[in-house]
Amino acid sequence: MTLRINKIISTLITLAIAMVILVPGAKAGFGVSPPYLRNEQLTRGSEFTQVIYLVRDNPNDELDASIEMNVPGVESWITMDRKNTFTLPIGERQTAIAFTIKVPNNAEFQEHKGIITVKTKTVKAPASGVVSIALGVQIDVKFQVVDKQIIDFVVRSLKFLPTEEGRTTKLVLKTENTGNVEATLSQVHIDFYDANDQVLLLGLDNANTLTKIKPYSTGDLTAEFSTETLKQSSYWAHIKVLNGQNKIREEKINLTVYPKGSLPGEGLKFNWQLILGLSMIVLVFLGFVGATRGGRRHR
Amino acid sequence: MKKNNLQASEVSKLVAVFTVTAVLFNFIGVNVFVTNFGLSTLLHLEFGNSSAQALVATSSVTVPNAPPNTPTQAREVPISSVASPTNAGDSIAFFATTTDPNGDDWNLKLCSTNSVTGLNCTATTYCTGNMATSGKASNCTYVTAGGNPESNAWYAFACDGTSCSATGSQGDLADGSESPFIVNHAPVFTAFNSPAINPGGTATFIATSSDTDVAGAQDNISLYVCSTNSFSTSTGCGGVQLCTATVSGAFGTTSCTYNFGGRTVIPDGGYAAWGFIKDSHNMPAVANGQGGATNLTVNNVAPTVSNFTMGSAITLAANSTTAKTFTFDATDNNSCINQASTSAEMTYAVADFYRSGVASGPACANDSINCYRNITTCQQSGCAGSTTPTVTFTCTTTLWFNAEPTDVGSRYPAEFWLAAAVVADNNSATSTQAISAGNVELNQTLAYDVVENAIPYGSVAAGATSTVDATTTLRSLGNTGVIKKIDGNNMVSGSNNIPVGNQHWGSAAGFSYGAGTPLTNGAPVSIATSTKSTSTSTPALVQDFWKVAIPSAQPAGAYSSVTNVTGAVSASGSW
Hints:
By secondary structure, chain A is an alpha+beta fold.
């Protein structure tokens, strides 16, 4: 009886001590943004990368993070730019992980769902007698392989490059290809109005062919306009960006046309073809001179 | 023979002798009459009532003075004509030549009428020339004045010391140098002004003036507007000539226009301009108004806001704020800098950042979830001087962790976040509020914490069940609802285990251990859901409660384990 009493007391005392030992880290907030890996318009053979951020509040402790993937049947399609375990360092509030889905060329046209779980634990040794709490997050995975080409864009920003009288005008459009094929904008149209935005002076479509952007990528497109007739002044450019017949962005931007000669010229550009050609000529010439001298010596 | 050739001086002497003789005869009662018969002199003596005549052959010739002949070659130098008048104040020289019958010296007398009285012009004497010997030229100079009539007839008389020619000459050279001389009068410049314009407008400078000269034709008035107070009738503006115009100038206005060289961007303020006028004959206006300055006012106009750049999708920090920047253009036709180039034309911007579907749009009620109003942390850049109308404002706001997401799977997947802005200039003129054409997605951020660092079962005896609820509290620290999922492991103390399933959880405080749900090892199990936080200071939370049963004969020890809490996004409808 005495033994049993001692045992109970011993157990009680031990767990009581455990109550006051606190595990650091649990109280610091932890999360993920966005909490999903999603694309519902993947094509066969396509590649899609999405960056997901692990976020922390009060990152005062170093944490070990581990990633477990559970996307039945297609886990091999998904890779990431980190190992399955990695460290979340002290002080880092956002940790980026780039997940890439590579769709095989023979993939079935179907939807795939699953989850990716990110768990954390403190790097420090767990305290004895403590039921500690470790935080983790779930990333929902949903993607679909479709038999359909989708062309879509989001124009993030527009900016004129400086221009002057007698020159063309270039508009840079930071454009995200949100479709699933390499493509570019159909057309950029600008109506140029006077400085008071009252009188339409000129309406122009882009004169050049716009470069293509890979799907799910963002690039700068340069649209060129034949504005050589615009005199030095300030103009309002009413811009319409078209994807097919769809107007995907309308914007009004002020354009200043500077006096002729105000801007630096095109200047000399590095022309490797020219340099190569000149080098060849020099080499041929030197060879000819060498051969001539050699011939004289022989004589 | 000599007597027959009496000179004027000898005749004078003879007259003097006869005068003395007559006086003497008269003294003694004899009247003496002298009759002049050419070169002979008849003395006729009267003695009381009787008289006797005797022919006395003496030197008795009288030669009176004769006036100079009417001048010839009378002329003006320079020629003063309708075609080439003399500006008032300028001088005209007059020349003439004549002879004097007596060989006397003479001088030129220039009169306004063809009449002299004695040696003076009956009317106005313009000028009197130098004494010249007969046959030589005399000249005089007349300084014209504003009081002269436009056309001034003149007559050139020749005068010796005794008399003037019987008539005056108006010139005989038939080369324009004849009478009259023409005086050109200065135009009168009474007012100069210019109505205010907007940038890009055309300024009109208006001069009010008059010119009464009509000889030949009404004089024209030419207006010159100069950038400095410097002007010459021959070379024009000393500084930059802003504009010029010529009109027929009786009484009225002359105006010319100036468009700042086609510039459409001009700082607001006053621009000094000096007006000068001259008439057809290069005569400037008198000081009254000439060179008068006007302050051309370029009006202040309000700026315009456009071209927002919203950046890429927003990732929020957990339980904290995240800086979000966006940019927009502000354009002011008064340029980006003030007239003195000392400070910015556009002085501040006020922006709003809000979810597109929120009530009242940019006029929404300020809160951390949907609406961030009156953002003034905006910096401008890109001003390259007074010809640059546009600057870029970069505004930064701090978004709370509970700002409403708009991405796929959120409550508002068809919406996004927008910005609106108003810019004010240094005259307190404000733009109309512009709303971004572009937009930005605000991503879901799943974030949470657990308030407790451990599950505090306390001390439990072997074979007993804990009686006190061990509480765990999950708080939503992101912008989604949070599903709390759990899994765990056996509690371990050395080689001893307490099975994981001995830990039971319940959703209500004071739950009965037997009614609780055992903790499992394996796939995380959902046990509770926390709503999305609507407050930044008191986040939404969910609690659950734990009890543990210690098996009988469980060895004493400090048992440890880790309970994994995994957060997952709840369905947006439950946020």
